[in-house]
ATP-binding protein
Amino acid sequence: MEEALKQQPADCIKVVLFGPESTGKTTLSRQLARHYNSVWVPEYAREYLQNKWNNERKTCEPEDLMPIAIGQMKLENELAQKTDSVLICDTDILETKVYSEAYYSGTCDPILEAYALKNSYDLYFLTYIDTPWEKDDLRDKPNERERMFKAFEDALIKYNRPYVLLKGGKEVRLKIAVEHIDNLLNHKK
């Protein structure tokens, strides 16, 4: 199981879209992948939990977190081999850790936590809560956006992760993200 959570070496810059539900992470991930003619790693939890909802009418439970983390790392490791420029990650397992602690009394599986802290990325884009909250089968915290945003930002600060706060509309966020990724790519050369 631990091997499945391990980040494999890759010859690309890795950036993560990070933040609470319904803050534009997937939209921006797609835009960035298109802009750089690269690949993006979708959020595995969405597919996994949508299937669970469709088949069982159940939402996320603590026992789902490890399969979600393993699925996320499998996708990331596979897709990281398909680019040598930039890999856009719609999420990472640090996000799974934040959700685990927010939903399940401050707890997180110690193995999941260890790899969430061990895996590394070049930059995080923390998406702010100034986008409209959109209801779907999985989103459930429309009234806790500020608390959830703080949990995400606190994790980035606590674990000393390099991040840029993204606020504003889609075009503004894309422009800021591109500037920062371009800077990383220029330093990679």
Q: What stands out?
A: Residues 94 and 117 are 7 Å apart (CA to CA).
